Amino acid sequence: MNSQPDSYTRAEIDQLVEEIYRTLESTEERLDRRCDDIYFPMDLTMSSLTSHIEAIQRELVEIQRYIARRPEASASIGRRNNISTNTQMNIDRRLQPKGG
Q: Domain range spanning residue 80?
């Protein structure tokens, strides 16, 4: 039979409490993800995905503009790799039937 000590040091108590909180956070995160999956299922329609892509690209443009305005901005950031922001045209081109 495993006997438990009658008293713990402050460090041992802190470690036990930390473990408890870590376990609770992990359990809460799993529960949150599960509830999100149930109550907010992912919308995988093309229009929804297109909207998300366009929103992300607008954010990217804003970030690039912010970086460009900063005097200490590196000349290599955002200029060497020019990313097309014309999402709809790229998506439409991919969805066109081949050979026709």
A: 44-95
Whole-angstrom distance, CA of residue 30 vs CA of residue 44: 22
Say yes or no: 72 and 85 in one domain. Answer: yes
pLDDT by position in tens, the chain (length 100): 566 767 889 999 999 999 999 999 999 998 988 888 787 776 667 788 888 899 999 999 999 988 888 766 555 555 555 555 555 566 666 666 665 4
Distance CA 49, CA 87 (A): 11
Which residues touch 90 (CB under 8 Å, ≥6 apart)? Answer: 84
**Angstrom distance (rounded) from CA 41 to CA 96:** 28
Q: Per residue in 41-61, is it b (16+ CB within 10 Å) or e — as a string?
A: eeeeeeeeeeeeeeeeeeeee
- Global pTM? 0.33
